[in-house]
Amino acid sequence: MILDNQDATTLWNIFFHIHIDQRCLSVLTEQCRTLIAVSGSLQNWSASPYGKIMKMSTEYTLTELRRHWALYTEMHSLPSERLKKLESAFTSVSNSVHNVFVAAASRSAGPLFQSAIEVSALQFTNYWEQGTTSMDANVETTFSPPAQSHLLLLTSRRGLQRSLRY
């Protein structure tokens, strides 16, 4: 997306938020379509602007990435029953950390970590309650689990599975 001059706020929202607004969802979906279009073969990929910075050593790797990009583009059109299962999975994880005090991010403040403990714990709680790093309650979000990097959806022989990354 950097190669395509997407703004930093959009990149941040797509990478770090679980819930994203419709504009970010559209940007991510369109980016995946662009990547699918240039990833039909290793030769096509290598000749593309993306192939210059993201090298593929095997056709299998490129095929797997292409499969995941396709999943991202198709997930918003899943049957409502599957989308409800994904929302339920997110809610389950969110509820499991609801009353947990996690201040791990405060370590990034270095010698001032003690001053950051409370705010990092508050940020953790907000993230899992709202699905976004924004502390602004007015931020528009849409529940679209497949569109985020944090909800990796994998298709296996057993069907759709989910894995949340924290």
Name the descriptors.
166 residues, mainly alpha, two-stranded antiparallel ribbon, 2 strands, globular, disordered C terminus
Question: Could you describe the 3D structure shown?
Answer:
The structure is a single chain. With 166 residues, this protein is mainly alpha-helical. It is built from seven helices and two strands, in the order H-H-H-H-H-H-H-E-E. Helix 1 (8-16) packs across helix 2 (22-37). The protein has one domain (8-160). Strands 1-2 form a two-stranded antiparallel sheet. The protein has helices spanning 8-16, 22-37, 42-47, 49-53, 59-75, 80-96, 113-130; strands spanning 151-156, 159-164.
- Number of structurally distinct domains: 1
Largest beta sheet, briefly? 2 strands, antiparallel
What string gives the helices and strands in order?
HHHHHHHEE
Low-confidence stretches: 143-166
Mean pLDDT: 78
Number of strands: 2
Shape: globular
Query: What is the helix content?
Result: 40-55%
Q: Radius of gyration, Cα only, in angstroms? A: 18 Å
How big a fraction of the residues is strand?
5-15%
In whole angstroms, how far apart are the ends? 23 Å
Lateral arrangement of strands in the main beta sheet? 1-2
Q: Find the structural class using helix and strand composition.
A: mainly alpha
Question: How many H/I helical runs?
Answer: 7
